[in-house]
Specification:
The protein is an alpha+beta fold. It contains three helices and nine strands; from the N terminus they run H-E-E-E-H-H-E-E-E-E-E-E.
């Protein structure tokens, strides 16, 4: 979990190589080639007219949280094992897509939540295997490289 958080911190600090691919008035999406796997990294950025704490309540990875209510790509989120009050093993499921051409997915990740001195909040995750969460029927087991969300306070 700490390695995933550190990898996200490094992505955030390194502005080189990001190329814009989509932008609306609210969100800008950029990409760059990954140094870890044969594919691309993606990041979405936007400023929301809300307090960082209210935004964090919507995105933080906790069982029973708001993410499953607003994110159509997250069907369920459960904590398999709480390692500490900031680190847990979690299972996330996604619905089928493209008229069921793409099967539902399940991801098992170690997740860490952090708050930094400047008020920034982070959730970082990466793939793990866990004996209490074997692959489930009717799901394709997905694999996450280090990934997560930053919630960064801005003036005003």
């Amino acid at each position: 979990a700490e390695e995933a958080a550190e990898q996200l911190r490094l992505y955030r600090q390194d502005p080189d190589g990001w190329r814009g691919c989509r932008s609306t008035g609210e969100v800008a999406v950029s990409w760059r080639p990954s140094a870890e796997f044969a594919g691309n990294l993606y990041k979405g950025e936007g400023i929301l007219p809300a307090s960082p704490q209210n935004v964090w309540e919507c995105i933080k990875p906790v069982a029973g949280g708001l993410r499953t209510k607003w994110d159509q790509n997250v069907k369920d989120f459960e904590v398999i094992e709480a390692i500490s009050d900031t680190v847990s093993i979690c299972r996330t499921t996604t619905p089928s897509a493209c008229m069921r051409i793409i099967s539902p997915r399940e991801f098992v990740d170690v997740v860490v939540m952090k708050q930094y001195e400047d008020g920034t909040m982070l959730s970082a995750a990466t793939n793990v295997e866990h004996p209490l969460c074997p692959p489930q029927p009717n799901f394709v087991r997905g694999f996450n490289y280090p990934c997560g969300c930053f919630c960064i306070p801005v003036p005003g």
